Automatic annotation (TrEMBL):
Keywords: NAD. Residues 4-249 form the NAD-dependent epimerase/dehydratase domain. It comes from the Bacteria. Signal peptide: none annotated. It comes from Chryseobacterium aquaticum. This is NAD-dependent dehydratase. It holds the Pfam family Epimerase.
Length: 343
């Protein structure tokens, strides 16, 4: 049995990771600024500490001497509405950087045996992602650096931070660049949700012969990885001896319009897609449409060469599971709203 700490375990990926590791019989301690919204704590950990990891005293409290593994997933982040409007840049950079500065130092002091850091595909250069049909997200393309958001710049800085601690203090690190992880028990409303959750929610909320909005022209491309395969990839990386940054994602690239249509097809509803962009978008929302790069797709050659495992599940399978869960949440939310009005 390993002694494992998950920082950010109150979030989507951290909750699923805790559930998997607890099932395997390990002792799991979680710290997050908030409790998990969808998992009971007994499912995902043995101890749950509510604390702000930007505070070094909290990190000192949470990390014990000779902890076997630390998974650093905590960050100030969200979907396009949160990351790309520019309104949260200072908080995103300050909060996430402070967390990683605290964690890297304390893990070194406490002789943590192995540390996982969750980076993001957002750290890849914008100029390599201008062609929606041929984006370049190979690990070696990271430099010269030019991320399209301050979130991406912070992720790149923190990658270098952990690798510097590896060189200077022998901190045993693993770094993964996540590409759009999705699935049930994650944020599905409020502006911080990712595209798969947003599309599932929009479809679940409308009736037949209505329409849903897709921001931009819908031709921007992405790949999306279902949470179960993400967790498997993370654990296999941790078991390996590879310590350089590596992609964790799917190579099944789709346009955002195709993603929206997939959610519609799964719902068995007759719904139209309305693309909203330019002045029409600004008139409705009051800010420029936040789109991110035109194309992004995981490049998995390095992961397969070093770890020997491939993603196998089609996007449709994960979307079916995600849509079912989000449709249930929408139904519960609607029932609660009606009860509040008439109760």
């Amino acid at each position: 049995m390993k002694k494992i700490v998950i920082l950010g375990g109150g979030g989507f990926i951290g909750g699923h990771l805790g559930k998997r590791l607890k099932k395997e019989g390990h002792h799991i301690r979680i710290c997050d600024i908030k409790k998990h919204e969808y998992f009971d704590h007994s499912e995902i950990c043995d101890e749950f500490i509510v604390g702000d990891l930007t505070d070094p005293s909290v990190v000192k409290l949470v990390l014990e001497e000779d902890t076997d593994e630390v998974y650093q997933l905590a960050a100030d982040m969200g979907g396009a509405l949160y990351i790309f409007t520019g309104e949260h840049d200072a908080d995103v950079m300050h909060n996430s950087a402070m967390i990683n500065l605290n964690v890297a130092r304390e893990c070194t002091i406490k002789n943590v045996k192995k540390v996982f850091y969750s980076s993001s595909a957002c750290m890849y250069p914008e100029h390599n992602q201008l062609d929606s049909n041929n984006p370049n997200c190979e690990e070696s393309s990271a430099y010269p650096a030019n991320p399209d958001s301050e979130y991406g710049w912070e992720k790149l800085f923190s990658e270098r931070l952990y690798l510097a601690y590896n060189r200077n203090y022998k901190l045993n690190v693993r770094v993964a660049r996540f590409h759009n992880i999705f699935g049930p028990q994650g944020t599905w409303k409020g502006g911080k949700e990712k595209s798969p959750a947003a599309m599932c929610r929009k479809v679940a909320e409308v009736n037949n012969n209505e329409e849903i909005e897709v921001w931009g022209n819908g031709m921007q491309t992405r790949s999306f990885l279902y949470i179960d395969e993400c967790i498997e990839a993370v654990l296999r990386l941790m078991e390996s001896d590879f310590s350089e940054p590596v992609n964790i994602g799917s190579e099944e690239m789709v346009s955002i319009n195709e993603l929206a249509q997939m959610a519609i097809d799964i719902s068995n509803k007759k719904i139209k897609i309305k693309n909203l962009e330019g002045q029409e978008f600004f008139d409705k929302y009051g800010f420029k449409c936040p789109l991110g790069v035109k194309g992004r797709n995981s490049h998995n050659k390095l992961y397969y060469e070093k770890i020997g495992w491939k993603v196998s599940q089609p996007l449709r399978v994960g979307m079916e599971k995600t849509y079912q869960w989000i449709a249930e949440q929408v139904a519960i939310s609607t029932t609660n709203s009606v009860s509040n009005v008439f109760g």
